[in-house]
Amino acid sequence: MRNAFIKELTEVAGKNKKIILLTGDLGFTVFEDFAHKYPDRFFNMGAAEANMMGVATGLALSGLIPIVYSIATFATMRGFEQIRGDVCFHNANVKIIGSGGGLSYGHAGFSHHSLEDIAIMRAIPNMTIVCSSDPISVRKAIAKIIIHDGPVYLRLGKKGEPDIYSEKLDFQIGKGNILKEGKHAVIIATGNLVKNALIASDILLKKGIACGVVDMHTIKPLDTKLIDHLIEKYKTIVTLEEHHIIGGLGSAVAEVIAEGNSTNLHFKRLGIPDIFIEKIGSQKYLRHIYNLDPEGISRSIFSLIN
Amino acid sequence: MEKTTDFRKIATEIRKDILKISYDAKVGHVGSAFSIVEILVALYYKVLAITPKNAKSPQRDRFILSKGHAAPALYAILYRQGFINKKTFTSYCQNGGLLEEHPTRDIKGIEAATGSLGHGLSLGIGMALSGKIQKKNYRVFVLLSDAECDEGETWEAILSAAHFKLNNLFVLLDYNKVQAFGKIKDVLNLEPLTAKWNASNWNVIEVDGHNTQEIINACNKKNLLPKPTIIICHTIRGKGVSFMEHTIDWHYLTPTDKHLKDALNELNKL
After folding, report:
1. Which of B112, B134, B153 lies closest to A51 in CB terms?
2. Residue B1: is its pLDDT beyond 50?
3. Is the peptide bond before A273 cis (omega within 30 degrees of 0)?
4. E strand or H helix that includes residue A255
5. Rounded CA gap, A39 and B155, in Å?
6. Can you say whether the dihedral through the CA atoms of A240, A243, A244, A250 is positive or negative?
7. What's residue B183's pLDDT?
8. Which value does ipTM take for this structure?
């Protein structure tokens, strides 16, 4: 997804001269082409993220479109107060790109596990949050977030994610995509686990459970209309995210359900529990440990239904 | 000499304005506002190319009050210069009013909302960098308090501005040697401060922070090296009123009837 991001950005920046790319000292083998093509619009700000957010705000207030890039943990947390008070309070046209969301940096350990970013970005007014699920939707999202007026947090995976969509995708900020219709249950998924949701759905079908899948890429503003439709259609809803179960997509959907009129709805948040990761290993291994691989997801839904 | 008298008169009137709105609103930070009066007079009367008419022009100079809690001083200047009207000015901290304790959005003449220490310099860097990118000749001035040098972000910004050789960026440091809960030297010693900024590749000028002409001369100095510039203004918190000067109290206190009377008496004698 990271390569899709920079490829698309490099193309868009060729036409839109207001685009400025700021990086917190990251981008080795990724940003060289952009830096080479647009040396006057590329700034490595060093490992100084708080300053980077303030600088981005100053650029935006002067009419430019800054894209700020770092690993999702550092992008959202090192300069959180600056995101709140500079970027969002001024409703500045800053696009924050958090790379390596969730457990993309598996072996790197807790410092790089981005499991709170959605929760904290969600709490700030004026922030729009998009979690991409595949390289194609990343490219479509870039075009839309550039023309969106105001702060955006775009959460990416890292590399090697398989395509889910085709080029025909009509990506709209705030409009979730129904990837698969079902009957007995639906998974509202976001980001780099959407693919696993689709595979889990296949596993469940073999057990006689028709499980729908929705890509809720925009966490804020949440597509409440779609959620209302899902509440009406399904007796069992689970959310799925590579993020703590506190504060992210699951909590956002729970808020809608709790304030609605539904009865007899079975609901569960699937994600990382409220702990720091206790094992060491790759993203794939950790997903298995925490039941976020397709088998784990399908098991959770199977138990919920039975 | 007429010029010097004018500045002193303006500064005195501004101090009286600050006192009055703080008394009416029952809000503190009078001492903090007093220490930057001459700096603001210098900037708004003789340095900044900003007027109410060109307040939105892309070519305008920018000023950011990073020391947000000294806002009453900025409001008083903006009022006197015609950026805000009397109604707005006297609505300071009144319920439903337009001005609060720290600079906020959507007020003519205010470039950025501040209030948390350490943000303003980064914002200023962004504006200065924009000027370079868009090939505009405006200058950016950021007023910092000394306590803001406690914040890590300030040092990120110091490194950054020097690295990008932002010679269109100027910091005025209100070095009044006190902070919220003690003297600078007792809380988090900044000395040798001049040496730190020098070593960080900034031009450093030191001035008497209550000598308006000296501040003006520093801001308009020619032949500076292609670096950002800091003008360290040696100031006194509460300057102008004897019982407010050098105190911790007057960071916080709201003027009572007696305070107001005694302070106005002293200021009227100047």
Report:
1. B153
2. no
3. no
4. helix A249-258
5. 25
6. negative
7. 95
8. 0.96
Average pLDDT value for residue range B51-65: 97
All residues of chain A having their beta carbon less than 8 Å from the beta carbon of residue B153 are 50-51, 54, 82
- With a pLDDT cut of 90, the percent of chain A lying above it is 99
- Residue B157 · residue B193 · CB < 8 Å: no
| Whole-number percent of chain B with pLDDT over 70 | 98
What are the Cα distances from residue A189, in Å, to A200, B37, B46, B82, B113? Answer: 12, 56, 59, 54, 37
Contact B116 A59 (CB under 8 A): no
Q: Which of A22, A51, A91 is best to mutate for the B interface (most B CBs within 10 A)?
A: A51
| Tokens found for residue A70 | 């770092």
Task: Supply A200's token pair.
Answer: 């889990």
Contacts of B31 by beta carbon, 8 Å cutoff, 6+ apart: B237, B238, B244, B247, B249, B250, B251, B253
- Cα separation, B80 vs B74, whole angstroms: 10
Helix residue ranges, H only, A207-247: 224-233
Mutate to test the interface with B, among A55, A68, A81, A88 (most CBs of B within 10 A): A55
> What amino acid is encoded at B115 in this protein?
G
Nearest by CB to B123, from A41, A43, A54: name it: A54
A22 and B CB contact within 8 Å? no
Nearest residue of B to residue A47 by CA position? B156
Q: What is the pLDDT of residues A114-126, one digit of tens each?
A: 999 999 999 999 9
The per-residue pLDDT for range B70-80, each reduced to its tens digit, is 999 999 999 99
Q: Which long-range contacts (CB under 8 A, 24 or more apart) does B54-59 make?
A: B55/B83, B55/B108, B55/B109, B58/A62, B58/A63, B58/B134, B58/B136, B59/B136, B59/B137, B59/B138
Taking residue A217's Cβ as centre, other Cβ atoms within 10 Å add up to 30
ω before A135 within 30° of 0 (cis)?
Answer: no
Chain A nearest CA to B250, separation (Å): 27
Give the orientation angle of helix B257-269 with respect to helix B2-25, to 10 degrees. 170
Q: Which residues of A touch B157 (CB under 8 A)?
A: 51, 54
End-to-end CA distance of chain B: 16
CB contact under 8 A, A62 and B124: no
- C-alpha separations of A126 from A90, A118, A178, A282, B204 in Å: 9, 14, 26, 35, 39
A58:B105 CB<8 A: no
pLDDT confidence bin for A306, thresholds 50/70/90: confident
Chains A and B form CB pairs within 8 A to the count of 96
pLDDT the model gives residue B4? 54
How are beta strands A128-131 and A185-189 bridged, if at all?
unpaired
Contacts of A85 in chain B (CB under 8 A): 113, 115-116, 119
Q: Which residues pair with B183 in a beta bridge?
A: B178
Q: Do A55 and B160 touch (CB under 8 A)?
A: yes
